[in-house]
Amino acid sequence: MIGYRIQDRGRDVAELLDPEQQWSFPASGDDDLVRRGVSVMSSLADLAAYVAVTALLASYPVLVEVEGPESDDVPVDADMQLLLPTRATVIAEDEEFFALVSDLVDLHETGAGFEELREIAESRI
Questions:
Q1: 19-28, long-range: CB within 8 Å, 24+ apart, which pairs?
Q2: Mean pLDDT score across all residues of the chain
Q3: 3-state SS of the chain?
Q4: Are the CB atoms for 35 and 52 separated by under 8 Å?
Q5: Spatial CA neighbour of 7 closest among 67, 80, 58
Q6: Rounded CA gap, 56 and 40, in Å?
Q7: Position 89 pLDDT exceeds 90
Q8: What's the rounded Cα separation, in Å, for the pair 109 and 102?
Q9: What confidence tens digit (pLDDT) does each residue in 13-32 have?
Q10: pTM of the model
Q11: According to the model, what pLDDT value does residue 55 have?
């Protein structure tokens, strides 16, 4: 499977390939919600809409394509998938993606929901 995520530029994508680091931690800090696998979205449009709705933050974000089998664990957020990466690559051409996310954030603030934002993202990607 292939999925997409945003992470801080300071985190080496090679860390995603280390089985000991393939865990997803909830923003709430609730240890009962830690899941096995790296959280991803199945498409760039889904990721753009998700970031716009959740206000996911990274100090210096990069867009990462991840490939690997799906984890047996169930993600806390039903919109996401959990992968056990065997390949992870930073997508170099990400300026357009982050510009899209910025536009989607503005639309979300005026009331647009996830599905509407995803449709807009799909039309622009």
A1: 19/84, 22/71, 22/84, 22/85, 24/75, 24/76, 24/82, 26/76
A2: 92
A3: CEEEEEEECCCCHHHHHCHHHCEECCCCCCHHHCEECEEEECCHHHHHHHHHHHCCCCCCEEEEEEECCECCCCCCCCCCEEECCCEEEECCCCHHHHHHHHHHHHHHHCCCCHHHHHHHHHHHC
A4: no
A5: 58
A6: 13
A7: yes
A8: 11
A9: 999 999 999 999 987 889 99
A10: 0.90
A11: 76
Note whether 106 and 116 are within 8 A (CB). no
Query: What tokens does 118 get?
Result: 């995803």
Distance CA 9, CA 5 (A): 12
The pLDDT assigned to 29 comes to: 87
* C-alpha to C-alpha distance for 14 and 23, rounded to whole angstroms: 14
Strand partners, 38: 83
